[in-house]
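INFO  loader      accepted 1 record
INFO  loader      residues=348
INFO  predictor   begin
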Amino acid sequence: MKRKITYLFTIMLVSVSSVFAQSNTGNAFGLVYEGAIKENLPGKVNIHPVKYNLNGNEIAANVYTPANYDPAKKYPAITVAHPNGGIKEQVAGLYAQRLAELGYITIAADATYQGASGGEPRHTDKPFFRTEDIRGMADYIMTFPGVDAERLGALGICGGGGYTLETVKSDKRFKAVATLSMFNTGEVRRNGFQNSQVNTIQQRLKEASEARAQEAAGGEIIYAGVASVTDEEIAKVSTLFYRQGYDYYFRTHAHPNSTFLYTKSSLLDLMTWDVRDNLDLIDQPLLMMAGSVAQTKYMTDEAFEQATGTKNKELFLIPGATHIQTYYVPEYVDQAVDKLKSFFGKYL
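INFO  predictor   done
INFO  writer      dumping C-alpha coordinates
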Protein backbone atom coordinates (compact mmCIF):
# COMPACT_ATOMS: atom_id res chain seq x y z
CA MET A 1 0.00 0.00 0.00
CA LYS A 2 1.49 3.32 -1.05
CA ARG A 3 1.55 5.78 1.80
CA LYS A 4 0.19 9.25 1.54
CA ILE A 5 1.96 12.05 3.38
CA THR A 6 0.11 14.69 5.34
CA TYR A 7 1.98 17.87 6.28
CA LEU A 8 0.90 19.82 9.34
CA PHE A 9 2.63 23.16 8.96
CA THR A 10 2.50 26.00 11.41
CA ILE A 11 3.15 28.32 8.47
CA MET A 12 1.76 28.28 4.92
CA LEU A 13 3.72 26.46 2.22
CA VAL A 14 5.40 28.06 -0.74
CA SER A 15 6.73 26.08 -3.67
CA VAL A 16 9.93 24.06 -3.41
CA SER A 17 11.16 25.71 -6.61
CA SER A 18 11.17 29.13 -4.94
CA VAL A 19 13.27 27.78 -2.06
CA PHE A 20 15.72 26.28 -4.55
CA ALA A 21 15.99 29.57 -6.39
CA GLN A 22 17.00 31.33 -3.20
CA SER A 23 19.77 28.83 -2.52
CA ASN A 24 21.10 28.47 -6.07
CA THR A 25 24.36 30.28 -5.43
CA GLY A 26 26.31 28.48 -8.09
CA ASN A 27 28.68 26.93 -5.55
CA ALA A 28 30.02 23.66 -6.94
CA PHE A 29 29.65 21.97 -3.57
CA GLY A 30 26.23 23.41 -2.75
CA LEU A 31 27.64 25.49 0.10
CA VAL A 32 25.54 28.52 1.07
CA TYR A 33 27.68 30.31 3.65
CA GLU A 34 29.87 33.36 3.14
CA GLY A 35 33.47 32.60 2.23
CA ALA A 36 32.67 29.02 1.22
CA ILE A 37 35.15 27.00 -0.83
CA LYS A 38 34.33 27.28 -4.54
CA GLU A 39 37.01 24.95 -5.85
CA ASN A 40 39.78 22.80 -4.45
CA LEU A 41 43.15 24.46 -4.97
CA PRO A 42 46.65 23.18 -4.13
CA GLY A 43 47.94 24.51 -0.83
CA LYS A 44 44.49 25.62 0.35
CA VAL A 45 41.78 24.18 2.58
CA ASN A 46 39.99 21.60 0.43
CA ILE A 47 36.59 19.91 0.70
CA HIS A 48 35.95 16.24 -0.01
CA PRO A 49 32.34 15.05 -0.44
CA VAL A 50 32.14 11.47 0.87
CA LYS A 51 29.54 8.79 1.49
CA TYR A 52 29.56 5.94 3.97
CA ASN A 53 27.18 3.42 5.48
CA LEU A 54 25.69 3.82 8.93
CA ASN A 55 23.27 1.22 10.23
CA GLY A 56 22.16 0.36 6.72
CA ASN A 57 21.70 3.95 5.52
CA GLU A 58 23.99 5.93 3.22
CA ILE A 59 25.34 9.08 4.86
CA ALA A 60 26.37 12.13 2.84
CA ALA A 61 29.20 14.13 4.41
CA ASN A 62 31.87 16.69 3.63
CA VAL A 63 35.41 16.30 4.92
CA TYR A 64 37.56 19.45 5.07
CA THR A 65 41.34 19.13 5.03
CA PRO A 66 43.82 21.85 6.08
CA ALA A 67 46.01 23.85 3.74
CA ASN A 68 48.96 21.83 2.43
CA TYR A 69 47.31 18.65 3.71
CA ASP A 70 49.68 15.70 3.68
CA PRO A 71 48.05 12.29 4.36
CA ALA A 72 51.41 11.02 5.62
CA LYS A 73 51.27 13.46 8.52
CA LYS A 74 49.02 13.34 11.61
CA TYR A 75 46.27 15.87 12.28
CA PRO A 76 43.69 16.29 15.03
CA ALA A 77 40.09 15.90 13.85
CA ILE A 78 36.71 17.38 14.80
CA THR A 79 33.16 16.27 14.08
CA VAL A 80 30.66 19.08 13.47
CA ALA A 81 26.96 18.33 14.09
CA HIS A 82 24.41 20.55 12.37
CA PRO A 83 21.34 22.23 13.91
CA ASN A 84 17.79 20.91 13.81
CA GLY A 85 16.52 21.52 10.31
CA GLY A 86 20.02 22.31 9.14
CA ILE A 87 22.35 20.50 6.77
CA LYS A 88 26.07 20.23 6.20
CA GLU A 89 26.16 23.03 3.62
CA GLN A 90 25.07 25.74 6.09
CA VAL A 91 26.49 26.71 9.48
CA ALA A 92 28.03 23.28 10.15
CA GLY A 93 30.04 23.66 6.96
CA LEU A 94 31.10 27.17 7.86
CA TYR A 95 32.55 26.10 11.20
CA ALA A 96 34.05 22.93 9.70
CA GLN A 97 35.84 25.07 7.13
CA ARG A 98 37.02 27.60 9.69
CA LEU A 99 38.38 24.82 11.90
CA ALA A 100 40.16 23.28 8.91
CA GLU A 101 41.79 26.67 8.40
CA LEU A 102 43.22 26.20 11.90
CA GLY A 103 44.78 22.88 10.96
CA TYR A 104 42.10 20.33 11.82
CA ILE A 105 40.58 17.67 9.60
CA THR A 106 36.85 18.14 10.04
CA ILE A 107 33.68 16.39 9.01
CA ALA A 108 30.12 17.67 8.69
CA ALA A 109 27.44 15.11 7.76
CA ASP A 110 23.74 15.27 7.05
CA ALA A 111 21.78 13.47 9.74
CA THR A 112 20.22 10.15 8.81
CA TYR A 113 16.73 10.62 7.30
CA GLN A 114 17.61 14.23 6.52
CA GLY A 115 19.41 16.28 3.86
CA ALA A 116 21.23 14.17 1.28
CA SER A 117 21.58 11.19 3.63
CA GLY A 118 19.40 8.10 3.29
CA GLY A 119 16.67 6.76 5.52
CA GLU A 120 12.88 6.44 5.43
CA PRO A 121 10.51 7.93 6.42
CA ARG A 122 12.14 11.22 5.51
CA HIS A 123 12.62 13.80 8.26
CA THR A 124 12.52 11.23 11.06
CA ASP A 125 14.11 13.08 13.98
CA LYS A 126 14.94 10.93 16.98
CA PRO A 127 17.67 11.43 19.59
CA PHE A 128 19.03 7.90 19.16
CA PHE A 129 19.61 8.40 15.45
CA ARG A 130 21.11 11.87 15.85
CA THR A 131 23.51 10.50 18.46
CA GLU A 132 24.43 7.62 16.16
CA ASP A 133 25.11 10.16 13.40
CA ILE A 134 27.84 11.74 15.51
CA ARG A 135 29.31 8.38 16.41
CA GLY A 136 29.21 7.54 12.70
CA MET A 137 31.15 10.70 11.85
CA ALA A 138 33.74 9.59 14.40
CA ASP A 139 33.87 6.08 12.92
CA TYR A 140 34.56 7.51 9.48
CA ILE A 141 36.94 10.34 10.25
CA MET A 142 39.12 8.25 12.57
CA THR A 143 40.10 6.12 9.56
CA PHE A 144 40.60 9.06 7.20
CA PRO A 145 44.22 9.36 5.98
CA GLY A 146 46.24 11.61 8.27
CA VAL A 147 43.86 11.65 11.24
CA ASP A 148 45.33 11.11 14.68
CA ALA A 149 42.61 9.00 16.33
CA GLU A 150 43.87 9.99 19.77
CA ARG A 151 43.07 13.66 19.09
CA LEU A 152 39.39 13.66 18.23
CA GLY A 153 37.11 16.53 19.23
CA ALA A 154 33.45 17.37 18.74
CA LEU A 155 31.54 20.56 18.00
CA GLY A 156 27.75 20.63 18.05
CA ILE A 157 25.61 23.56 16.95
CA CYS A 158 22.03 24.20 18.14
CA GLY A 159 20.23 20.81 18.23
CA GLY A 160 23.48 19.22 17.13
CA GLY A 161 24.99 20.65 20.31
CA GLY A 162 22.50 18.80 22.49
CA TYR A 163 23.08 15.57 20.61
CA THR A 164 26.85 16.07 20.80
CA LEU A 165 26.60 16.32 24.58
CA GLU A 166 24.53 13.13 24.58
CA THR A 167 27.17 11.38 22.48
CA VAL A 168 30.19 12.25 24.60
CA LYS A 169 28.50 11.11 27.80
CA SER A 170 29.43 7.59 26.76
CA ASP A 171 31.74 7.83 23.74
CA LYS A 172 35.18 8.49 25.13
CA ARG A 173 36.89 8.53 21.76
CA PHE A 174 36.12 12.24 21.94
CA LYS A 175 38.81 14.00 23.95
CA ALA A 176 37.22 17.48 24.03
CA VAL A 177 33.74 18.79 23.28
CA ALA A 178 32.31 22.19 22.43
CA THR A 179 28.81 23.47 21.75
CA LEU A 180 27.52 26.62 20.10
CA SER A 181 24.03 27.94 20.82
CA MET A 182 23.09 24.56 22.31
CA PHE A 183 19.42 23.58 21.91
CA ASN A 184 17.87 20.93 24.15
CA THR A 185 15.48 19.51 21.58
CA GLY A 186 13.72 17.17 24.00
CA GLU A 187 12.97 19.93 26.49
CA VAL A 188 11.53 22.19 23.79
CA ARG A 189 9.49 19.48 22.07
CA ARG A 190 8.06 18.49 25.45
CA ASN A 191 7.57 21.83 27.20
CA GLY A 192 7.51 24.20 24.26
CA PHE A 193 9.99 26.99 23.64
CA GLN A 194 10.59 28.82 26.93
CA ASN A 195 8.11 26.39 28.56
CA SER A 196 5.19 27.79 26.59
CA GLN A 197 3.36 24.46 26.04
CA VAL A 198 3.53 22.63 29.35
CA ASN A 199 -0.26 22.53 29.57
CA THR A 200 -0.60 20.51 26.35
CA ILE A 201 2.02 17.79 26.90
CA GLN A 202 -0.42 14.91 27.32
CA GLN A 203 -2.51 15.97 24.33
CA ARG A 204 0.54 16.20 22.10
CA LEU A 205 1.77 12.80 23.27
CA LYS A 206 -1.63 11.36 22.40
CA GLU A 207 -1.44 12.90 18.92
CA ALA A 208 2.07 11.50 18.42
CA SER A 209 0.88 8.06 19.51
CA GLU A 210 -1.96 8.22 17.01
CA ALA A 211 0.48 9.26 14.28
CA ARG A 212 2.67 6.25 15.10
CA ALA A 213 -0.32 3.92 14.94
CA GLN A 214 -1.33 5.37 11.61
CA GLU A 215 2.15 4.85 10.17
CA ALA A 216 2.30 1.27 11.47
CA ALA A 217 -1.00 0.51 9.74
CA GLY A 218 0.39 1.75 6.43
CA GLY A 219 -1.50 5.01 6.51
CA GLU A 220 -0.46 8.60 6.05
CA ILE A 221 2.83 9.85 7.49
CA ILE A 222 2.05 13.01 9.40
CA TYR A 223 4.67 15.74 9.53
CA ALA A 224 4.89 18.57 12.00
CA GLY A 225 7.02 21.66 11.67
CA VAL A 226 7.62 24.13 8.87
CA ALA A 227 8.49 23.50 5.21
CA SER A 228 8.73 27.08 3.99
CA VAL A 229 7.33 30.55 4.65
CA THR A 230 6.32 33.80 2.99
CA ASP A 231 7.87 37.14 3.89
CA GLU A 232 4.60 38.24 5.46
CA GLU A 233 4.47 35.18 7.66
CA ILE A 234 8.03 35.67 8.85
CA ALA A 235 7.21 39.25 9.82
CA LYS A 236 4.29 38.06 11.95
CA VAL A 237 6.33 35.58 14.02
CA SER A 238 6.46 37.00 17.54
CA THR A 239 9.55 35.12 18.78
CA LEU A 240 12.85 36.65 17.63
CA PHE A 241 14.61 33.28 17.68
CA TYR A 242 12.15 31.71 15.24
CA ARG A 243 11.82 34.83 13.13
CA GLN A 244 15.57 35.03 12.62
CA GLY A 245 15.68 31.27 12.10
CA TYR A 246 13.13 31.35 9.30
CA ASP A 247 14.99 34.20 7.67
CA TYR A 248 18.27 32.24 7.87
CA TYR A 249 16.95 28.91 6.63
CA PHE A 250 14.45 30.12 4.07
CA ARG A 251 16.06 33.34 2.82
CA THR A 252 19.68 34.26 3.46
CA HIS A 253 21.08 30.69 3.67
CA ALA A 254 18.32 28.65 2.04
CA HIS A 255 19.07 25.23 0.57
CA PRO A 256 16.59 22.77 -0.97
CA ASN A 257 17.68 20.00 1.42
CA SER A 258 17.03 22.09 4.53
CA THR A 259 13.62 21.98 6.21
CA PHE A 260 12.08 22.26 9.65
CA LEU A 261 9.88 19.21 9.09
CA TYR A 262 9.91 16.17 11.36
CA THR A 263 7.64 13.15 11.60
CA LYS A 264 5.04 13.69 14.28
CA SER A 265 5.65 10.18 15.57
CA SER A 266 9.23 11.26 16.39
CA LEU A 267 7.74 13.14 19.34
CA LEU A 268 7.34 9.83 21.18
CA ASP A 269 11.13 9.78 21.47
CA LEU A 270 11.81 13.50 21.52
CA MET A 271 9.38 14.36 24.31
CA THR A 272 10.78 11.69 26.63
CA TRP A 273 14.43 12.67 26.08
CA ASP A 274 16.38 15.42 27.78
CA VAL A 275 20.05 16.24 27.33
CA ARG A 276 20.29 17.22 31.00
CA ASP A 277 19.93 13.61 32.11
CA ASN A 278 23.26 12.08 33.18
CA LEU A 279 25.31 15.09 32.13
CA ASP A 280 27.69 14.23 34.95
CA LEU A 281 28.97 11.40 32.72
CA ILE A 282 30.83 13.96 30.63
CA ASP A 283 34.39 13.99 31.95
CA GLN A 284 36.05 15.48 28.88
CA PRO A 285 37.00 19.17 28.71
CA LEU A 286 33.84 21.10 27.85
CA LEU A 287 33.30 24.49 26.23
CA MET A 288 29.77 25.83 25.87
CA MET A 289 29.27 29.01 23.84
CA ALA A 290 26.14 31.11 23.42
CA GLY A 291 25.09 34.58 22.42
CA SER A 292 24.68 36.79 25.46
CA VAL A 293 21.20 37.91 24.34
CA ALA A 294 20.09 34.62 22.76
CA GLN A 295 16.57 33.57 23.75
CA THR A 296 17.90 30.00 23.86
CA LYS A 297 20.67 30.81 26.33
CA TYR A 298 18.70 29.29 29.20
CA MET A 299 19.30 25.83 27.72
CA THR A 300 23.07 26.32 27.70
CA ASP A 301 22.92 27.63 31.28
CA GLU A 302 20.91 24.61 32.46
CA ALA A 303 23.22 22.08 30.82
CA PHE A 304 26.41 23.81 31.89
CA GLU A 305 25.31 23.80 35.53
CA GLN A 306 24.59 20.08 35.48
CA ALA A 307 27.79 19.04 33.71
CA THR A 308 29.50 18.33 37.03
CA GLY A 309 31.66 15.41 35.94
CA THR A 310 34.36 17.37 34.13
CA LYS A 311 37.16 19.25 35.86
CA ASN A 312 37.62 21.52 32.86
CA LYS A 313 34.54 23.37 31.68
CA GLU A 314 33.94 26.91 30.50
CA LEU A 315 30.91 28.98 29.58
CA PHE A 316 31.74 31.57 26.91
CA LEU A 317 29.21 34.27 26.05
CA ILE A 318 29.44 36.19 22.78
CA PRO A 319 28.44 39.79 23.65
CA GLY A 320 25.37 41.08 21.85
CA ALA A 321 24.77 37.95 19.77
CA THR A 322 21.46 36.17 19.34
CA HIS A 323 21.23 32.43 18.66
CA ILE A 324 20.98 32.64 14.87
CA GLN A 325 23.54 35.44 14.59
CA THR A 326 26.22 33.05 15.86
CA TYR A 327 25.62 31.08 12.64
CA TYR A 328 26.82 33.68 10.17
CA VAL A 329 27.49 37.24 11.44
CA PRO A 330 31.26 37.65 10.89
CA GLU A 331 32.09 39.41 14.17
CA TYR A 332 30.29 36.74 16.20
CA VAL A 333 31.61 33.82 14.16
CA ASP A 334 35.14 35.19 14.52
CA GLN A 335 34.78 35.34 18.31
CA ALA A 336 33.48 31.78 18.46
CA VAL A 337 36.26 30.50 16.19
CA ASP A 338 38.92 32.29 18.24
CA LYS A 339 37.57 30.61 21.37
CA LEU A 340 37.51 27.22 19.65
CA LYS A 341 41.09 27.80 18.52
CA SER A 342 42.33 28.19 22.08
CA PHE A 343 40.09 25.43 23.48
CA PHE A 344 40.86 22.70 20.99
CA GLY A 345 44.46 23.90 20.76
CA LYS A 346 44.84 23.20 24.47
CA TYR A 347 43.03 19.87 24.68
CA LEU A 348 43.72 18.25 21.29
